[in-house]
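Section 5.1 Outputs to date
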Amino acid sequence: MKRPLPESVYVHIPFCRRRCYYCDFPISVLGDKLDTNKSGSVNQYVDFLCQEIKLTPSYGVPLKTVFFGGGTPSLLPIKSLEKVLKSLEQKFDFSNNVEISLEVDPGTFTLEKLSDYQKIGVNRLSLGVQSFDDILLEKCGRFHRIKEIEKAINYLEKVEFDNFSLDLISGLPYQSLEQWTYSLEKAVEINPKHISCYDLVLEPVTAFGKQYKPGQFPLPSDNQTAKMYKMAQEILTKAGYEHYEISNYAKPNYQCLHNLVYWENKPYYGLGMGAASYTNNQRFTRPKTRKDYYAWIQNIERAGYYIDSPQLTKIDILLETLMLGMRLKKGIKLSELYRQFSTENIETIYQVLLPYFSKKLVVFKDQYYQPITEQPKLENIDTINLSDPDGFLVSNMILSSLFKVLDTI
């Protein structure tokens, strides 16, 4: 089956004022007081980024989504952000309704800067709130506090920036269910179009990863984090948000189009230090330090653009399709699997999932998108998805069962 062409691009902006205690992303710490308008490091990075854009082969399809992640992209001066956007548009072209998203942190933008975002085409913001509790923010190493959050929301209202998302984190050290509930209720009160709720993941190289062990005090227990997950689902769906992905909620018609590209396992460009791309049936991650990234750009200038990465196998693509697609509430259509993979593969998936279906952790739906209550025949199933919230809570266990069997085929 012919693979679709990339219509999306992720752009990594690595600069942060400080490194949060849970963060293992490829970033460059600038300090709290640096004026990025006068930063030689920032200007140099933007120049190399624009050079990578120029060197990247285009597949000739206009971009439908652009996502600036980080790091803290809102530390980038407007002129630098505009320069990158112009380079992208010149290289790839933009579709008429292109979604241009930017991750921003409270305390890193002014009212004027917010207005400038709108002028240069940014039409979606992701605000990294994380918590509405100053003590928890301090314990996470975050730069901002509640007063900066309130000021940021006030700015958004003043310029009528309607399409924005709030990011929250559960499972933090010393975080109680009451604190988590309060953050959820504050988020609902603000009424953004989109809310992301991420459970803390302890990465070994982070400050938290070195200091704490999963499930042990001061981290919440597994039982407590499960309650936090269910609390988010209950409060946010009751407030009119659709739980469309394991960690994401949106008002009708405000799902993050860019992130849907990942979950639907579609190709995309990745640009910048540490950015991952998925094009031409290859996944490739760029060097994770500025020095190595710059050297890599210089090498491809001399030798021509290349991605030194093996082609994904059929089973790799199947496993990734399952891993990503099962994160979505709409799940995976079997017709899509039949187009790409063998009947044997799909029969195996069906057999592995049957025990979870009987436990109501997996949902089978018919061609009318109605849940099937009795054990169905494979040919009567149109869609497979995880139940909400119980199936989502044990998604890793279900996927591990699938991988264990499919990996041996």
